Amino acid sequence: MKLRNTIMTLAVSAAAAFGPAYAQTAEGPSVGAAIERVATQLAGRIGFAAQEIGSDDVIAFNGDEAFVMASTYKVAIAAAVLDRVDRGELSLDQMVEVTPDMMMIGDAALNGTFVHPGLQLSIANVIEVMITESDNTATDISMGLAGGPAAVTQYLRRIGISDISVDRTTGEIIGEFYGLPGPATHKLATEVFKARPELLKIQADRNLDFEADPRDQATPLAMLQLLLAIDSGTATSAESRDFLIDVMSRTRTGAGRLKGLLPRGTPVANKTGTIGGVANDVGYITLPDGRRFAIAVFTKSSETSEADRDRAIAEVARSLFDYFHVGQMAKQ
């Protein structure tokens, strides 16, 4: 409770002193730095960026530093698939066959439920499961629909985003993280983990070599740029924008992260990411008066518990929620 009160006071004090969003580039004490000092007690190194939609001011800390995206990169994959839908190359009601040999390890909405051949999903449902359940089978199907990692990165460059790189499938990322011999299919991983049970313990441990790999990384400011591009209709059509944000509003992972300390009933549309010492959450939060802000929170190199990492993200989200809300009231 002391930590919650401390960081809330920092946000309220900053809002009272500086009015609306105190920018990363301004001189003097920054609300971003104040939040960072508290949040890093819980989660190693942290970076975040946030912006009220419709405003030009950004609050960020370590905003230009690269972080492992983990499953937050699924937002970029979804947007790239929807771009192909917008161009008439795919349709959301198009059916995709999901065969047993396509099943991936990870959060297992599909491989933990459908063990027999004969599964088909619409592209809309593939995206739904990828985002709301962070399902890796659905993600690698979506990656293929987008044209592969290089095509997703090319799409991001086309819409003006330079500091997000999508380089591997989830099977490749997980396989390399665990040291598996090739992409991590469910069958392969089951056999390897039976033979080498010690591998299972590293899921929650930081892996500095993995974090140092520049592939599949983003800066908080670049992820914020993507979120704003989606919301503005720059990244996709307005129809695809509405579809994706609606899907993100049903995310069931990471209840203790962006959502963890917000007032009950606060609308949140988000996507989480977790691997090793990395815990992330990105998305949109609605303020009591209906204004919204986009937010990206990344962590890395953490040796704390996953609950502490979740709490760090929740502290950032709540502090910025208070900051934007109090800042608006200070102007009135």
From TrEMBL:
Keywords: Antibiotic resistance, Hydrolase, Signal. Residues 48-299 form the Beta-lactamase class A catalytic domain. Pfam families: Beta-lactamase2 (PF13354). InterPro entries: Beta-lactam/transpept-like, Beta-lactam_cat, Beta-lactam_class-A, Beta-lactam_class-A_AS. Its EC number is 3.5.2.6. SUPFAM superfamilies: beta-lactamase/transpeptidase-like (SSF56601). GO terms for molecular function: beta-lactamase activity. It catalyses: a beta-lactam + H2O = a substituted beta-amino acid. Residues 1-23 form the signal peptide. Belongs to the class-A beta-lactamase family. This is Beta-lactamase. The gene is bla.
